[in-house]
Design brief:
CATH superfamily of the largest domain in chain A: PurM-like C-terminal domain
Radius of gyration of chain A: 21 Å
Low-confidence stretches of chain A: 330-338
Protein name (chains A, B): Thiamine-monophosphate kinase
Distance between the termini of chain A: 50 Å
CATH architecture of the largest domain in chain A: Alpha-Beta Complex
Pfam family, one (chains A, B): AIRS
Number of helices of chain A: 11
Number of domains of chain A: 2
Strand order of the largest sheet of chain A: 8-10-7-11-9-12-13
Oligomer: homodimer
Largest sheet of chain A: 7 strands, mixed
Order of helices and strands of chain A: HEEEHEHEEEHHHEHEHHHEEEEH
Keywords (chains A, B): ATP-binding, Kinase, Magnesium, Metal-binding, Nucleotide-binding, Thiamine biosynthesis, Transferase
CATH class of the largest domain in chain A: Alpha Beta
Number of strands of chain A: 13
InterPro entries (chains A, B): PurM-like_C_sf, PurM-like_N, PurM-like_N_sf, ThiL-like
EC number (chains A, B): 2.7.4.16
C-alpha cells in the first residue's frame, strides 16, 4: 500500500478488520467481568446471576443522529460515535435500575471509511464503558458489513442484581419527581455545533457543551442507587424532560408537575450561551434530550439518594406534565409530542 | 391522506409506526414465554434460567445482503427480510447448542419506505420465530429510525439450559463430521435470482430454491439435540461448507476431511438447476452459504443424533479442509477465504 494513502475498510477483509478492532475493545483485563465467552464463536455468553437479563438496543445513523462534519468545520470522530453508542445503550439499563453486563455492536460502514475511524469507534466504545463505570461490561460480539451510510447499532444486556425493575408505570400521587445527571447541556452543545460560528466564539464552555452532546455522561451509578432507595418509576431523559416526563405520566396514569425554580439551577450555567445564540435557555432544559440523565419518582417517605435533585411532584389527575401547575403546551410541548 | 397513495413511514411518527408493528410481533399468546417484560419501557427483561445468556447479532443491509428488486423482476418483501433476519440470528444460538429466548430488532428505514413493507417485516420476524419452532422466543424491543438505506439489525439471546456451549474449538482427530439441514439450496436460489431469466424457467423447484435463499429454515431443534448427543464442536454454515469447516479446523487445530460421496446426496437434487445455469453444482455445496445448517464434530463413540448426516471426519495435522484427502484450493477455497 502507498504509505501516503489512508487505509480504507474496502482494503481489508472482515476478518482483518476484526483483528484490528477486537484488541481495542478490551476493558476488563484483570478485573471482574460478566463475560463468560467473548468474541470469536457463533455467539457470546454473558452471566445473568439472578436468572434474568435486561436487554435494549439503540442505533445511530450518519446524518440523522450524528454528522461527520458540521458547517463550522467540527468533525465528529469515530471515538465520539463509539462513545455515544455505548453511553445511550448503557443508559437504558441504568434507567431500569440495573447494571450493564455486555454490549454487542454492529457497524455498517461505507467502503471509503478510513480504518482509523473504525479503530477510533472501538476505542470510544471501550472508553465509555470504562470511564462511565460500567464495571464488568464488555463488547462481546457484533457484526461488520458494508453500506452507503455509517450505521452503529448496539444491543446492551444488564443485570438487576435480584431487584425488581424500576418501570415507567410506578409513579403515584404525592411522590417526589427527581433528576440525576445534567439537563440541557447536550442540547446546548448541539446548538453550538449547528451554529455557523467557530466553537471558540463560545468561550471555554463551548467545548464542554459539545462534549456533552458528543460524549454524554449518563450517571450510571444513579440507576441502581435509585432502585435500592425505593424509586417507583424511572426512565432516561433521552428526548427531553417534558416529553420523557410525559411518558411516566402516561404509563403511571398521573400528572407530573415540574417546579421552574428547581429547574433554574440547570438553566443558570447555560444562560450566557443561550443568550449568545438567541435561544430561550428553558427550551434546552425542558426540551433538550441526549444528556441521558434519569427522571425518577420516589414515594414521599423515601429520602432522595445522593445524586438526585427534586424537580417536581406527582399529582393526581390527567396524565399530563405541568410547570408550576400550568399547562406546558406553551413551552413547545407540541414540538416534542410523539 | 389521499386513499390512492401508499402511506410511507415519513407520514407517521415513531410512536405511530411502533403502534402498528408491535401487535404483529406477538407470537406467544397463551404459550410459555421467556419474556418477563416486553416492549414499552427503557429495556425488556428476558429469563435466563441457568444464570447465563447467549447473545449474538446480525445485520442485513439493502443492496448488500438483499435486493428489493432483481433483474428478473423478483421483489424481496419485508416479510422475506424479517424472516431472514430472525432466521440467521436464531441460527447463531442453535450453533452454540442453545435455544433462543428473545430478539431485539433495529430498523433503519428510508422515509419513502411504505408502511406496509415495515408491517410485512414484522410479520416475517414473527412467522420465522413461530414456524422455525423457536418456542418461548419473542421480539422484546428494538429501535426505529431513518436512513438512506434499509438496514435491519437483530440481536438474539438464548439459553443453554444448563449445558456447556458447543464451541468451534472442540474437534479432535477421529471424530465424525456431520451436517444438519440443507447445503447449497440457498446458493442455488441466489443464482436463480441473479440470473436474468424468469423464475418459471426453472420449473417448480425454482420457487422452492428462491425460498431457501430468502426464507432459510435453520434446523433449530438440531443444535440442542447435538449438544445433548455429545457434539464437541459446532457452528452454523453461513458462509459455505469449506469456509465454515475451515473455522472449526482453525479453532480446533485439526484437519477436516470431507467425503465427496457423502456430499453427493446434497448435490443430486440441484444438478438440473446447476446445469441450466452452467454452474458446477459442487460450487453451491462447498461454497454456498445462507442455508444456516449446522456443521458439527461428534466423538466416534457418539451415535449421530437424528437429523445429522456424516459428511467427513476430523484428521490430525494442519488445520486445513480437504476433500477425499486432497487440497480444496482447486474448489475455489481462495474465493471464500477471508
Amino acid at each position: 500500500m502507498d504509505p501516503g494513502r489512508r487505509l480504507l475498510v474496502s482494503g481489508l477483509s472482515e476478518t482483518e478488520l476484526l483483528a484490528r478492532i477486537v484488541p481495542l475493545l478490551s476493558v476488563n483485563a484483570g478485573r471482574p467481568t460478566s463475560t463468560l465467552l467473548g468474541p470469536g464463536d457463533d455467539a457470546a455468553i454473558v452471566a445473568a446471576p439472578d436468572g434474568r437479563t435486561v436487554i435494549s438496543m439503540d442505533t445511530l445513523v450518519e446524518d440523522h443522529d450524528f454528522r461527520l462534519i458540521r458547517p463550522n468545520g467540527h468533525r465528529t470522530s469515530g471515538y465520539d460515535v463509539g462513545w455515544k453508542s455505548a453511553a445511550q445503550n448503557l443508559s437504558d439499563i441504568n434507567a431500569m435500575g440495573g447494571s450493564a453486563t455486555s454490549l454487542v455492536v454492529s457497524l455498517t460502514l461505507p467502503p471509503q471509511t478510513p480504518v482509523t475511524w473504525v479503530e477510533d469507534c472501538a476505542r470510544g466504545l471501550a472508553a465509555a464503558i470504562a470511564q462511565l463505570g460500567a464495571n464488568g461490561c464488555s463488547v462481546v460480539g457484533g457484526d461488520l458489513g458494508a453500506g452507503t451510510q455509517l450505521v452503529v447499532t448496539a444491543a446492551v444486556t444488564g443485570t438487576l442484581e435480584g431487584r425488581a425493575p424500576v418501570l415507567r408505570s410506578g409513579a403515584g400521587a404525592g411522590y417526589t419527581v427527581a433528576v440525576a445527571g445534567t439537563l440541557g447541556r447536550a442540547a446546548a452543545g448541539l446548538a453550538i455545533l449547528e451554529d455557523g460560528r467557530p466553537v471558540t466564539d463560545f468561550g471555554p464552555s463551548g467545548e464542554e457543551l459539545i462534549d456533552a452532546q458528543l460524549r454524554p455522561h449518563p450517571p450510571l451509578a444513579a440507576g441502581p442507587t435509585a432502585a435500592r432507595a425505593g424509586a417507583s418509576a424511572m426512565l432516561d431523559i433521552s428526548d427531553g424532560l417534558l416529553r420523557d416526563a410525559g411518558r411516566i405520566a402516561t404509563a403511571s396514569g398521573v400528572g407530573l408537575d415540574l417546579d421552574p425554580d428547581a429547574l433554574q439551577q440547570y438553566a443558570d450555567p447555560l444562560q450566557e450561551t443561550a443568550d449568545r445564540l438567541g435561544i430561550d435557555v428553558m427550551d434546552w432544559i425542558l426540551g433538550g434530550g441526549e444528556d441521558h440523565g434519569l427522571l425518577a419518582a420516589f414515594p414521599a417517605e423515601c429520602p432522595l439518594p445522593p445524586g438526585f435533585t427534586a424537580v417536581g411532584s406527582v399529582v393526581p389527575g390527567r396524565p399530563v406534565v405541568t410547570l408550576a401547575s400550568r399547562a406546558t403546551v406553551l413551552r413547545g410541548w407540541d414540538h416534542f409530542a410523539d
